[in-house]
Specification:
Blueprint (H helix, E strand, L loop, with lengths): L2 H23 L7 E5 L13 E8 L3 E8 L10 E5 L8 H6 L4 E3 L13 E3 L9 E5 L9 E2 L10 H11 L5 E6 L6 H13 L8 E7 L5 H6 L1 H7 L5 H11 L11 H13 L22 H8 L19 H14 L2 H6 L27 H9 L3 E5 L9 H10 L12 E2 L2 E2 L2
Parallel strand pairs: 4-7, 4-9, 9-10, 10-11
Antiparallel strand pairs: 1-2, 2-3, 3-7, 3-8, 5-6, 12-13
Keywords: Signal
Pfam family, one: Peptidase_S10
Family: Belongs to the peptidase S10 family.
Length: 425
Amino acid sequence: MDKLMNCLRFFLLPLLLLLALICSSHHGHVAASKATVEYLPGFQGRLPFYLETGYIGVGEAAELFYYFVKSEGNPEADPLLLWLTGGPGCSAFSALTMEIGPIKFQVPVAEQNGSLPNLNLNPFSWTKFSSIIFLDLPVGTGFSYTTNPSPDDHPSDQVQVSQAAEFIRKNPLYIAGDSYSGMTVPPIVQQLSIGNEKGIEPMLNIKGYILGNPATSSEIDKNARIPYAHGMALISDELYKSLHKSCKGEYITVEPTNLECKNNLKAFSECVSGINTLSILYPECNLDPAKMPVEIAALRRRMLQDDSQLLSTVDPPKLDCNDDTNLMVYKHWVNDELVQKALHIREGMIAEWEVCNRRSDYEHDISTSFVYHVNLSTKGYRSLIYSGDHDMVIPYIGTQVWIRALNYSIVEDWRSWHVEGQVAG
């Protein structure tokens, strides 16, 4: 057997054994399927990396769609990542083509005149050093679907955890995600760890997890927005001092009788109303929000849904017009018949692919993932938490708060890190 098949067997045999067990125990499932993708519309020539797509049945009727990219480095030794995009309900396709995957759309996107946009290689892909499974989770996300929809079935944090744990059961394994996935990735790692302790086969060589700008606690994340805005000079010293004094540092749960705090919060909302809170350096776009596709705003939000009074008077963030155009083109690309044929998508299972599927019946039944971080660190699992400093929705200040609460010893002082000789952070 040639080297390619050896690599595939090394990576996928444990997974396929699990899938066979799953499918044999749930007769309502369509048979698990996988296919190699060698060409994609918009990319010139054969893909220079291994891409596999497929469906895996979990639970009673769920069919989860995945994209698997084998490491371009040393796949026999490199780690395996399971990537979940936030939302909840945003497709992992966004990570595959816009964040950490090996391909990206050519930007800015020129006028297409009905043709599909071009795809280029991403020189900074994480697949240079790891194999990645990009998973559309929960059901209803991307191309994942259910064969037996029921009004009594609705997605939740815990459902995501159970389905992900069932999906992936020899290489070093890391679970990764961003934004709202900060609520579900740590519980997934814990559930897999417990499975190992109970001897559930196949055993997983799980090493830890990776999270970017992760939602962790609604209270911590949202309370951090005001000190963040002050630290980034988005509000005045006077307003910040007044907010801190009147609200006593609690900006989410405000007593109904605390009119001074409420008035200060209103002033704060008005002050930041012209700022794109998702990325404060991105400009606001002049497009009519009523005409903006819902999934575009949802893709860029991928965060805790803001149900507090903190920013209740602020319109949903609008995107750079260029991004609006690009994302609409992405949607056009994925919904194209030739593209779906190349990706081996089952016909008729979903009405239309959307970047994000915001279900109103999604149950946020994990209020904080902090306790999972505590448990996993106690067990010795590694974690990498990275946080950009332009995100006001899940500010790095809040992330620092809960990390400090873990009471780790600092083994290396704060320092600059460099890219190509330049300070990058």
